[in-house]
Write a structure and sequence with these properties.
- With 331 residues, the protein is mainly alpha-helical.
- The chain has one domain.
- It contains eleven helices and three strands, in the order H-H-H-H-H-H-H-H-H-H-E-E-E-H.
- A three-stranded mixed beta sheet has the order 2-1-3.
- Helix 8 runs antiparallel to helix 9 and helix 8 packs parallel to helix 10.
- It is a multi-pass membrane protein.
Length: 331
C-alpha cells in the first residue's frame, strides 16, 4: 500500500480511537486555542462590512490550512511522523465522544426528572435559550444537536481528510469553528460573519449528504429515514442541517423541527417527520448510538475513498510516465 494513503488510514484510525478513548480535554484543546486566536483577529479587524469578514475568514481558516499543509509537507519523508501528525490532527478535530457525553448528561437529567440540571447542561450542546424549553423541547433540541453535530464534528472532517489529508482536516475544523463564532444573524455579525457562514455551507455540503446517506444505512428504520430525508430535507432553512436532521427524524421515528428560541429570538421552523411521535428523553440515547454507528461508517468510507483515490492517481501517473518513456524510446 502506498505510503500516503497508508499514513492517512493508520493516522485517521488512531485519531478516531483517541477521540473514543479520551474525548476533548478540558484545557489546552487545539480548537480552543484556534478560537482564541480567531477572536483576537476579529477584535482587530471587525467592521460592519462583508469584506473585512472575508479577510478574517481568509486569515484564520486559510492560515490554518496553509500551516497544516506546510507541516505535513515537512514531515512527509518520515512515515511514522506522518501517521502521528494525522492521528493528532484527527483527534483534535473530531468531537464525537464529547458530543455523546454531553447529550447523555442532558438525557440522564431529563430521565431523572431534574429539569433544572437539563437546562444547565443544554448550552454545552447548542445555543438555544434553555429557560424557554420544557422537557420534551429540551429532548428535541438534544436530538437535533446530535444529528447536526454528527456531520459537523465528525463526518465532515473525515470527508475533507479523505480529500486533502491533514490540511483538509484542519481547514474544515477552522471553517466550522469560525461559523460557530461569527456566523450568526445578530446585528453585529450579520455582515462580518457572512463569509464564514457561506464558506461553512460550502465545505459542509458533502459531509452533510454523506451523514444523511449513512444514517439511512445505519438507522433502525431505513425506509423511514429515506422517506423523511427525501421529503423534508429541503424544508429546513439550513442547506446542511436539513438532510441530516430529516434523516435522523425518519430513522428514529420522531418529529423534529418546529418553534425554537435563540437568545430571545423565536424561530418557527418547518416540522421534519410530521407523521412521527414527539421526541422523548429515551430517544437521546438512541440518537447517540446512531451517531456512533454513522461515525464508524464515515471513518471506513473516508479511508476507502482516500485509498481508492491514491491508487487511481498512482495508476494515472504511472500511465503518463510510461507513455512519455515510450515516446522517448521510439524517437
Amino acid at each position: 500500500m502506498h505510503a500516503g494513503h497508508l499514513g492517512f488510514a493508520c493516522g485517521a484510525a488512531l485519531g478516531f480511537l483517541g477521540d473514543l478513548a479520551l474525548g476533548d480535554p478540558r484545557r489546552g484543546h487545539p480548537v480552543a486555542a484556534f478560537g482564541k486566536a480567531a477572536h483576537a483577529v476579529e477584535q482587530r479587524l471587525w467592521r460592519d462590512h462583508r469584506g473585512y469578514g472575508a479577510l478574517h475568514t481568509l486569515l484564520c481558516a486559510g492560515g490554518t490550512a496553509a500551516g497544516a499543509a506546510l507541516l505535513a509537507r515537512a514531515l512527509r519523508p518520515s512515515r511514522p511522523a506522518t501517521v502521528a501528525l494525522t492521528a493528532a490532527t484527527t483527534w483534535a478535530v473530531l468531537g464525537g465522544t464529547s458530543l455523546g457525553r454531553e447529550a447523555r448528561a442532558v438525557g440522564g437529567a431529563l430521565e431523572a426528572g431534574d429539569l433544572e440540571v437539563a437546562r444547565e447542561r443544554l448550552p454545552h450542546l447548542c445555543g438555544r435559550d434553555p429557560q424557554a424549553l420544557d422537557g420534551q423541547q429540551i429532548a428535541r433540541a438534544v436530538v437535533e444537536s446530535v444529528a447536526e453535530n454528527t456531520s459537523d464534528a465528525v463526518v465532515g472532517a473525515l470527508v475533507w481528510g479523505a480529500v486533502a489529508g491533514v490540511p483538509g482536516l484542519a481547514g474544515f475544523r477552522a471553517v466550522n469553528t469560525l461559523d460557530a463564532m461569527v456566523g450568526h444573524k445578530s446585528p453585529r455579525l450579520r455582515r462580518f460573519g457572512w463569509a464564514s457562514a457561506r464558506l461553512d455551507d460550502v465545505v459542509g455540503w458533502p459531509g452533510a449528504r454523506l451523514t444523511a446517506a449513512l444514517t439511512v444505512l445505519a438507522g433502525p428504520d431505513r425506509r423511514g429515514a429515506w422517506r423523511v430525508a427525501r421529503r423534508d430535507a429541503g424544508r429546513h432553512p439550513s442547506p446542511n442541517a436539513g438532510p441530516v436532521e430529516a434523516a435522523f427524524a425518519g430513522a428514529l421515528g420522531v418529529r423534529l423541527g418546529g418553534t425554537l428560541a435563540y437568545a430571545g429570538r423565536v424561530e418557527h421552523r418547518p416540522v421534519l417527520g410530521g407523521e412521527n411521535r414527539p421526541v422523548e428523553a429515551a430517544d437521546i440515547e438512541r440518537a447517540v448510538r446512531l451517531s456512533r454507528r454513522v461515525s464508524l461508517l464515515a471513518l471506513g468510507t473516508a479511508i476507502a475513498a482516500r485509498t481508492v483515490g491514491s491508487l487511481c492517481g498512482g495508476a494515472v501517473r504511472s500511465g503518463i510516465t510510461s507513455s512519455i518513456t515510450s515516446r522517448r524510446s521510439s524517437r
